[in-house]
Amino acid sequence: MTDEQVEPAEHAAEGAVEDLRIAAFWQAARGHVGMGKMDQVLGGTADDVVPPPSWSYGDDAEAQELLDRVLDGRKTATALAVAELEQVGLEIPRVGDLSIVVDGSGDPRALLRTTEVEVVPFDQVTAEHATAEAEGDGSLESWRAQHEASWRRVLGEAFSPSLDVMLERFELVYPTVGPTPAVD
Prior knowledge:
By secondary structure, the chain is α+β, with helices and mostly antiparallel strands. Helix content is about 40%, strand content about 20%.
């Protein structure tokens, strides 16, 4: 057997473990959004059983720092270039959408609910939004410098001050206090 034949099975096993972690986290967290309370009487629905999409800020120290800021309540917003979303085939979130944030190891750590979505040109992002993102020193100048550099790397010449940016505000639904509880 060659390495090429073994590797897909290894990736499948890793994916299965991650899926189980996400499913267990969703089972523990879904009651915090009012789902699953009547399963015993009425049966579950797909929305109750199927976990929301999961994602991460990345797998480096900065990504862990961003996740920690979400968990301690300092970070309540994020931003993505609309062109970046289109490149990876994702849609703009809608108010009420749920998502699970995983850490760099793939462990689910937070359930978020989108509370506000707005698309504005890059040069119209406000200081209030920059502060809510809790990145860098929290200033609009720092936010613009960091995001421009990042989007120039990703989008190249497609970046401009009029670039459409999706601004998302969210609330931490689970865990509500302290570190993420262990899930069995």
